[in-house]
Amino acid sequence: MSSKSKSYRMFKVLSMAFVFFIQIYWYKIRRKPEADWEKLWEKIGKRFRKTLFELEGLLIKIGQLLSIRADLLPDGFIRQIQDLTDKVPPSEWEEIERTLETEWGGPIDNYLLSIDKKAIASASIGEVYKGVLKDGNSVAIKVQRPQIQSIIQTDFRSLRIIIWFVQHFVPVPKGFINFEVLYKELKEVIERELDFSKEKSTLLFFKERFKEEEVVKIPDVYFELCTPRVLVMEWVNGIKLTDRDCVNELDISHRELAQRLIEVFLPQWLEPGIFHADPHSGNVLVSKEGKIILLDFGMAGEITKKDASYFQGLIESLLSKNYTKAVEYFTKLGFLLPEADPGTMERLLAELMSFQPARLKEMDLISLKLEMNDMIQALPIQVPTRFVFLGRSFMTTEGMIRLLITEDEDIIELVKPVFADWLKKQGNNRWSFIWYWLQSQPIFKTIYSFTEFLKFPQKLEHIKETEQRRQFQFTLYENRKKQLHQIALLGLFGIGAGIYTSHQLILQLSAGVGVVSGVGYVITSYKLKKWMKYMHEKRRG
Q: What GO terms are given for molecular function (predicted)?
């Protein structure tokens, strides 16, 4: 891995961040229009991407994790890093051999009949090699990169400095981006991936979960050769879903293969437990028999029983159009910060759920997206990392399914039978959920959706006008507070001058001005504080 010098890495990262801070401040001071801000964030994203590939290591992993935080970061920045692939040049074989010998406590020939010295996969934290055990079984050997621990400590130290500086000096909406939480989540995710023992535990969880499923294949683990830095698994041959020629030669149809993918991932999204958070085409293969092969469990998320219960309640609330209840569940799941205005959230959900996706062709999608982005960014929302991973898992799986079906096929039609089978397995307590689901189907909501769709532009404009009035009122209070503060300071100065000159008239007038302005300042501050809950930091600046 290049650029391992601690001082060089810190210099490159901190200097890059410092340049970004200066650019953001400069645009803020000059009150640049939205279009210029978009270009700036694209420019920042390009430089960030270039630096990631130059330094490699942990920074690429951080870039990958940031690329799925579209709820926190500007679109222009996200676009530049959203296709980051965690592929870096492999380490020297001598370094890998030393790692294996240290972890296994002896020469690798004591354990392996042979091993390919060329890595078959190489990422920022680990590399994978193909080997053959003494008993003739082929294995995949995942080895942690040499010196990665030292590199990660350096990069986290740099990140810690940057976050401290952002919190104290950078004009970003800190009230609704909790950088401490974001840093902690990044650290937890990466430290989890660093410990291959945890990945082994996740793999074993999936083997237990799918032990009765004939359509799923999870590699076996060779416990005696596994350590926190080495993971040895059964070698499994499979076909990538992107290899259309090989997929076409399978006995199973594309449609059935797509439904098997849904069968594998749907329970992960809806039931308590661990889910695969990185199911791209390199980690999800298909065997010649049509079995779904799951690999690489380093990036995983977890849904608790409470999360699953709240999530089910959220779906029921949305499908039954009970948006008050839906907002409550959003809060319980951690999506909404305490400053969020429930009324505004209810109206926003109503607009989002009130029109048919099929009618989007009739709308100006670009204008709609811009308006909805502005509204969402004006609300105190921060998606918990576990649900960002869930969204990543869902969207990546959807992408694989679309590779298998034709353009005119509807994914919903593929999901329905799988979803119905899943519901049957859950017991009678799920019948209410089934009813809500049936209510959500087009046959039950055609009239409602059509009338609500026609009202959508007016409703959206009404919410925008409400937000604009709040912005105007907030600005009035803020300006009045500043003026009263300045008058109060002038009164204090006058009192000092009156005492110094022993001039009673100046003293009395100054005291009167100070008291009146002070009282006005307190009253205005109280009113301003009440309005604060409606205002996003982005709108305050």
A: ATP binding; protein kinase activity
Integer distance in angstroms from the first to the last C-alpha of the chain? 42
**What whole-number distance in Å separates Cα of residue 281 and Cα of residue 369?**
29
Phi-psi region of 427 (alpha: psi -120 to 50; beta: other; left: phi over 0): left
Domain boundaries, the chain: 6-90+148-193, 237-340+380-441, 463-538
Question: In Å, how far from its chain's centre is CA 467?
Answer: 27
Q: State the pairing for strand pair 284-286/273-276.
A: unpaired
3-class DSSP state of 286? strand
CA dist 55 and 158 (Å) reads: 13
Q: What is the mean pLDDT of residues 349-372?
A: 54
The Cα-based distances of 95 to 87, 107, 420 in angstroms read 18, 13, 52
**pLDDT tens, residue by residue, 304-340:** 888 888 887 887 787 677 888 888 888 888 877 666 6
**Considering the entire predicted model, what is its pTM?**
0.67
Residues 130, 119: Cα–Cα separation, whole Å: 8
Report helix, strand or coil for 135: coil
Nearest alpha-carbon partner for 142 in 211, 193, 190? 193
